[in-house]
Amino acid sequence: ADTAELVGQKLNEGKTKQIFELLDQPGLVLVQSKDQITAGNAVRKDQMEGKAAIANKTTSCVFQLLQESGIKTAFVKQHSDTAFIASHCEMIPIEWVCRRVATGSFLKRNPGVKEGYRFSPLKMEMFFKDDANNDPQWSEEQLLEAKFCLAGLTIGQCEVDIMNRSTVAIFEILEKAWATQNCTLVDMKIEFGVNVKTQEIVLADVIDNDSWRLWPAGDRSQQKDKQVYRDLKEVTPEAMQMVKKNFEWVSERVKLLLEPQASSRVVVLMGSTSDMAHCEKIRKACTSYGIPCVLRVTSAHKGPDETLRIKAEYEGDGIPTVFVAVAGRSNGLGPVMSGNTAYPVINCPPLTPDWGSQDVWSSLRMPSGLGCSTILSPEASAQFAAQIFGLSDHLVWCKLRASMLNTWVSLKLADKKLQACSL
């Protein structure tokens, strides 16, 4: 209640939420959920006690996962049980739908396609937000011709490409996360906005149990999402209890998506402390993926017994480990480690201009039975370690996936900027 007077006028109201300005925080808004559930363009509409809190909890967790992965979103932080704070955006009036499995309206629009057909790559669809016409499906051409202008940004080919790519990446991240709970993310609807302050396109609106289809163990009969409500023959108190149970199940489960599924560790071994700067780059990059990184000094030439003792220490505590060997001149460290451990070893030699082209062969030409890889860039060696851990820990994988998207978007925007200069 003490923040009540800081909430300004209502900026917008939808079927399930209200948006308020925040007087003390310009550029930010309050997104307040309502205890209402609707289906079929609000043809069916019911109060569901506690829905606001359930939806808010769900969307806050989902946005936290995406935010921590590195996806740009409007979400700032959860404010209360039923509201969160977000950047003020002008919304792009399109629902971006991404599908892994064919079901629902896709089957009606594409007769002959059986339910369960899997899309690889993912299937993207767009629907124009227009209640009067039941949100018609739009083509990319229609979207481009609409020439939407929001917060001073005109939605052209570049912006559409960015939103398309982002939708796919966001789906893949949430799909990977839900798979840890043995749930299939079947399809999903998201919306984008243009941040009023930065003119950046960001994931906005909400992602909650109204936004997707979720099938535990890939089994439609166990569906946990809003489809359960849409499918009700008639709305009875008992039926609404069942719907609420499903929504609660999802809001509890979604918290688990933020938990790492496996432990991981990178151990960087350096021949001497003169390689410290090189190793610090590896550690910094590991930290950005959320992977603990330990630095040790040992020389396989001058103290092989100590090298093997250090190796045994990290093999013996059960934490999955990738070793990175950093040794200049002749790299004895990586090959000796690689021949004596079943864990992966990455050589990351700090090459110098004078002898580098000779020295590198000590990391490349191995006796038989050694499987170490060699990566010259310290950041790239950490990335490769992250890719290994990403196979078993979705949080690491999600950071890699978001980073790939962000790199792609940066190139796209750099090209747009250059074209604008050249005109």
Automatic annotation (TrEMBL):
Residues 264-411 form the PurE domain. One of its GO terms (cellular component) is cytosol. GO terms for molecular function: ATP binding; carboxy-lyase activity; phosphoribosylaminoimidazolesuccinocarboxamide synthase activity. The keyword Nucleotide-binding applies. Pathway: Purine metabolism; IMP biosynthesis via de novo pathway; 5-amino-1-(5-phospho-D-ribosyl)imidazole-4-carboxamide from 5-amino-1-(5-phospho-D-ribosyl)imidazole-4-carboxylate: step 1/2; Purine metabolism; IMP biosynthesis via de novo pathway; 5-amino-1-(5-phospho-D-ribosyl)imidazole-4-carboxylate from 5-amino-1-(5-phospho-D-ribosyl)imidazole (carboxylase route): step 1/1. The keyword Ribonucleoprotein does not apply. PROSITE patterns: SAICAR_SYNTHETASE_1 (PS01057), SAICAR_SYNTHETASE_2 (PS01058). GO terms for biological process: 'de novo' IMP biosynthetic process. Keywords: ATP-binding, Decarboxylase, Ligase, Lyase, Multifunctional enzyme, Nucleotide-binding, Purine biosynthesis. InterPro entries: PurE_classII (IPR033626), PurE_dom (IPR000031), SAICAR_synt/ADE2_N (IPR028923), SAICAR_synthetase (IPR050089), SAICAR_synthetase_CS (IPR018236). It comes from the Eukaryota. Homooctamer. HAMAP family: PurE_classII (MF_02045), SAICAR_synth (MF_00137). In the C-terminal section; belongs to the AIR carboxylase family. Class II subfamily. In the N-terminal section; belongs to the SAICAR synthetase family. This is PurE domain-containing protein. The gene is PAICS.
